[in-house]
Amino acid sequence: MVGADEQPAVRYFNPLPALGGLLVLVGATFNLSTLLHTIWYGRIHPVHYVWLWVAKDQPMLPPSLPAIIAALSIMVLLVSGAYFWHRLRRRELAEQSLWAYWGWAFWPALLALPWLMHFVSLNNTINTVLHQFWVNTFGYEITLELWSSRWHLLGIYGCIILWGWAIGRFTERVRDLLPDHHLHLQPAGPTASNWWREWPFWVVVLLSLVLTAYHTQTQHRLWSNLMYGSPDIGYYTEMLLNVLRGRGLSCEAFGHHFFGEHFSPILYLLVPIFALYPHIQTLMFIGAFAVLSGSWAIYALLRGQGGSMFSAGMVAIAYLLYPSTSRIIYGSSYGFHEILLAIPLMLWSFHFYLRRRWGWMLLFMLLAMGVKEDVVVVYTVFWTYVFLRGRKWWALGLALFSAGWFYIVVQHIGPHFNHTGEYAKYYLWKNIGGTPLGIAQTLLKDPALVLGRLSSWPAVNFCLALLLPLAILPIRRAVVLVIVPTLVFINLMDTSDFASIRFWHQATVIPVLWLAAVLAMMVADEFRPLHVGRVAMVLSCSLMLHLLLGYSPFSNTGRDTAADLQRNALWHADRRKALQELHQLIPPTARVQATSRLMAHFIDNEQVYPLDKQPSPPADWVIIDLAEDIFGVQTPDELEQRARALDAGQQYHFVRQWNSILLFQLSETAATP
Hints:
Elements: H1 15-41, H2 49-54, H3 64-89, H4 95-102, H5 113-121, H6 124-138, H7 151-177, H8 199-224, H9 230-244, E1 250-251, E2 256-257, H10 267-276, H11 280-292, H12 294-304, H13 309-321, H14 323-330, H15 342-354, H16 358-369, H17 373-388, H18 393-417, H19 436-445, H20 447-454, H21 457-467, H22 484-491, H23 509-521, H24 532-549, H25 556-567, H26 569-585, E3 591-594, H27 596-599, E4 607-610, E5 621-625, H28 636-648, E6 652-658, E7 661-666, H29 668-671
Parallel strand pairs: 3-4, 3-5
Antiparallel strand pairs: 1-2, 5-7, 6-7
């Protein structure tokens, strides 16, 4: 309290808060006009074409994104006004407070960032200097496209992450304004153990089931239109059918037991479920459900760490919006892969580890390790990290157990079931040494080769696509280092396309990233254990990047797929009709040899072979789709040569043709023993 003989300190005018407020007003008015223009005229405001122009080389910006930003801007303006009025009534308008609560509002300048970055990328002098500096410093060349043609995408990434941070800061200020009982923001307390009884959890469950149904139906639609191939979903369907037939996990495409490819005993646990409906659709449902049910574990993880049920629900919804959780289900048209089962199992094991429920933790860890040897690598590094952080000695024991598991699988189980006598997947790193020892030797002898791949645009973009939807929060916790070996091996694969969120290799990375993000949301305060602003950051970044990178009716990928189906509706209808007639001609007991996408439609037959295999005795029917475009088949010219050879030979005779689909039947003389 100021004494009678004391004078209050003189406060000088600070223009920065006023400038921030002016920018908020201008930006909100600008976006309000955009929203109204979009609603009334059905097209984007001309000013927003700066976004679309930046992405002209690679049109990744959906038209819905500017409208969403406009709606969020209006929300920010209204709530900020209410907050300003509240502070005015309480006479708390100190200039420092104004700057803290309004100074971040220069965000309209973010709209110009991609445009600015695009012009910077046109400066060849800058590109040349950066490239020459890199070569002189590290002794090898870096991919130039990272510094040039990809600047516009990096600019969009930057805008989204900065917008997410602004939303996070704004949300935290609103949190300061509201009482704890509003929006269920009170800490979990002792009720955290009953999280499954809370209504936000069941909202998350409902959303995950709705999305599971959507992705299952979409997968079936792609499969029925010959856009899904036998690798990999067809292979897994065939293996589970063979288990029901008493043949074990065998597949004609591999020529040996599946343990020769991957040690995945958990597939046997799917057999009772698959037996209820032995069809390829079952695996479509299981894959989508496994990935999306990870949101349940995320909710439990947040509640177990003291987060409110509202915040836990928001983070679980952010998980459902996370681009990888929608793209990985399809596997870039490969479909189901057993590694999808590891995502929820690993998340539950982390949840029980943090809750110190050791029995449940070991159960889910063992189930996850039974999915694939890739999971074992993550657990080996994770328990080593726990031990080095000064935790229990049992962490070292679990690390040694995991390492021993991996060694036995790679050196003994895999070679035993593989006819080549070695681990089947070494070929993925053939160009850099193949085996772990060979890769280590390559790293010592030719580090430029390895470092060049790790600094390439696919590697950088892959890491950004994983981190940015989480607002880069995982890097705030050291546990994120657990995924470094896995990311290195993914980016060193000979097929650079695998370093993408479209494929399944990221499955073991996703749970660790979310664990690190959840831990980064925690604050050291028993009354406020969760940083609500960071929850808003993750939710907003996941939403906006889902529109760019995810798969749904509102995203770029989903809209492109729908447009392709609509554009080629007649073509797909003819192919579906051809499939119906093929099933009428070919009995279920016949041996079929086909190209990959057609092969996925004859998995129910007793025996089915890919076109590049030579079964003995020969298949009864051979089906060739000259429009085939999936992994494991020859070029179109080679397919035509194969078809001409079958037509000219005496072993098969031509039966019928449907557009690009050709059908050949084994002649009676060739079928006679």
